[in-house]
Automatic annotation (TrEMBL):
<feature type="domain" description="NAD(P)-binding">
    <location>
        <begin position="75"/>
        <end position="389"/>
    </location>
</feature>
<keyword id="KW-0520">NAD</keyword>
<dbReference type="GO" id="GO:0006012">
    <property type="term" value="P:galactose metabolic process"/>
</dbReference>
<dbReference type="InterPro" id="IPR016040">
    <property type="entry name" value="NAD(P)-bd_dom"/>
</dbReference>
<dbReference type="InterPro" id="IPR005886">
    <property type="entry name" value="UDP_G4E"/>
</dbReference>
<dbReference type="InterPro" id="IPR036291">
    <property type="entry name" value="NAD(P)-bd_dom_sf"/>
</dbReference>
<dbReference type="GO" id="GO:0003978">
    <property type="term" value="F:UDP-glucose 4-epimerase activity"/>
</dbReference>
<comment type="similarity">
    <text>Belongs to the NAD(P)-dependent epimerase/dehydratase family.</text>
</comment>
<keyword id="KW-0413">Isomerase</keyword>
<dbReference type="Pfam" id="PF16363">
    <property type="entry name" value="GDP_Man_Dehyd"/>
</dbReference>
<protein>
    <submittedName>
        <fullName>UDP-xylose 4-epimerase</fullName>
    </submittedName>
</protein>
């Protein structure tokens, strides 16, 4: 039976926009008698009324609402976003069952559509439109679905923006993580993989950064993530939940097969990350590239970062999920171990795009740190993970292919078709 994409109201929020179809036994009478048609219509109406009045009964029929031996059901929060959508793709390819919860404040319905088209089979992927700031909605989602694990990606995630709107960051990152954790505990969900960041380290004196490097974040984004980590760590002391905290360095690249890419909202461009800014300049969407800060204490005066390819990053998540152990907390840096300057990045971007991007050098951006790169030896050793996509130029070429063929990002018509 072909997959069906339907919309069904479940109160106001959460709203499951698409779910696997139910199977109906073929019990149609052979006769086309008018009375039997009327009877069937009445029966169907009664069934519809029953479903609307008893949504939980309906839910219990959904494969997402029951644990199934041999199937791991992962809740991916923020799955419409850049990293969450790539993680979902990898999980689905690896035969996991996935529920995405996203409020679409920053993600793209087009990314969900791509994932649904690749995995239309019942019981593979469902999308629930909900805001993690709405604790009632979150509790309901956990009560109605049988999750085995959570990958908590959903967050606002721009350093510059966090300095301008700190309360938004503490609410969205710290408070929402508490809500998710409470719902997990109440519903006995056994595994959490948490998206943290190297911004929790601030600007350490010693490079490279290990997991033991003291955390002194210097902006609200980093502090909000550090507080969320602290909540998780305190909770873990008396819980048998399996927890892995992954501290990502700077994420770049996109799906090597070209299904997904990075497509932030146009209004976020001013806060945007360097790869997006380079591609915008190469596409002519922006007049050029602004490099903020040329007087840092680095080899060429521009900031140094550790760029990790998104394909490697999602691989680290899958390895973390497989190796997570009850009662234990694993904390890992996810980076290449190699720092690259912004100037180097810009040169690679010019080569990948073939465009001689105009570069304007400006003063420093508040909240930025000079040099950040990881020591990934702990994750290499304990999770048997090593970055494979370490050729910066190649990662940018892959990302550029998607950008060039998706000039409008995940375009509006896709969203309308939903
Ligand atoms: N991109 C990076 O370089 C980077 C580096 C370190 C850590 N991280 C972390 O990785 C995670 C994912 O980042 P990303 O780059 O994919 O960001 P993104 O903005 O592309 O995706 C975040 C997603 O979360 C959703 N979201 C935000 N608030 C929500 C809420 N209250 N309820 C439901 N959904 C909500 C957004 O709609 C979006 O789809 C974040 O936690 C971020 O802090 C990212």
């Amino acid at each position: 039976m072909p997959p069906v994409s339907r919309t069904r109201a479940q109160g106001r929020f959460p709203r499951s926009l698409s779910f696997s179809e139910m199977e109906y036994a073929d019990s149609k009478p052979k006769s086309h008698h008018v009375l039997s048609k009327i009877f069937m219509a009445a029966l169907l109406t009664a069934v519809c009324i029953f479903i609307l009045k008893h949504p939980s009964s309906y839910h219990s029929m959904s494969p997402f609402s029951r644990h199934e031996p041999g199937v791991t059901h992962v809740l991916v929060t923020g799955g419409a976003g850049y990293i969450g959508s790539h993680a979902t793709l990898r999980l689905l390819k690896d035969s996991y069952r996935v529920t995405i919860v996203d409020n679409l404040s920053r993600g793209n319905i087009g990314a969900i559509k791509v994932l649904q088209e690749q995995f239309p089979e019942p019981g593979r992927l469902q999308f629930i439109l909900a805001d993690l700031g709405d604790a009632r909605a979150v509790n309901r989602i956990f009560a109605e679905n049988a999750f085995d694990a959570v990958m908590h990606f959903a967050a606002v995630a721009y350093v510059g923006e966090s300095t301008l709107e700190p309360l938004r960051y503490y609410h969205n990152i710290t408070a929402n993580t508490l809500t998710v954790l409470e719902a997990m505990a109440a519903n006995n969900v056994k595994t959490l993989i948490y998206s943290s960041t190297c911004a929790t380290y601030g600007e350490p004196e010693k490079m490279p950064i290990t997991e033991d490097t003291p955390q002194f974040p210097i902006n609200p984004y980093g502090r909000a993530k550090k507080m969320a980590e602290d909540i998780i760590l305190d909770f873990s002391k008396h819980s048998n939940m399996a927890v892995v905290i992954l501290r990502y360095f700077n994420v770049i690249g996109s799906d090597t097969e070209g299904a997904l890419g990075e497509s932030p909202r146009p209004e976020l461009r001013e806060h945007g990350r360097i790869s997006g800014a380079c591609f915008d300049a190469a596409l002519g969407v922006s007049p050029g590239l602004k490099v903020r800060g040329t007087d840092y204490e680095t080899a060429d005066g521009t900031c140094v970062r550790d760029y990790i390819d998104v394909n490697d990053l999602v691989d680290a998540h899958v390895k973390a999920l497989n190796k997570a152990e009850p009662t234990k907390v694993g904390i890992y840096n996810v980076g290449t171990g190699k720092g690259r300057s912004v100037k180097e990045f810009v040169e690679a971007c010019k080569e990948a795009t073939g465009v001689n991007i105009t570069v304007e050098y400006l003063s420093r951006r508040p909240g930025d740190y000079a040099e950040v790169y990881s020591d990934p030896s702990k994750i290499n050793r304990e999770l048997n993970w090593t970055a494979q996509h370490t050729d910066l130029l190649e990662s940018l070429r892959v990302a550029w292919r998607w950008q060039r063929s998706h000039r409008e990002g995940y375009s509006a018509p896709l969203a309308m078709a939903f």
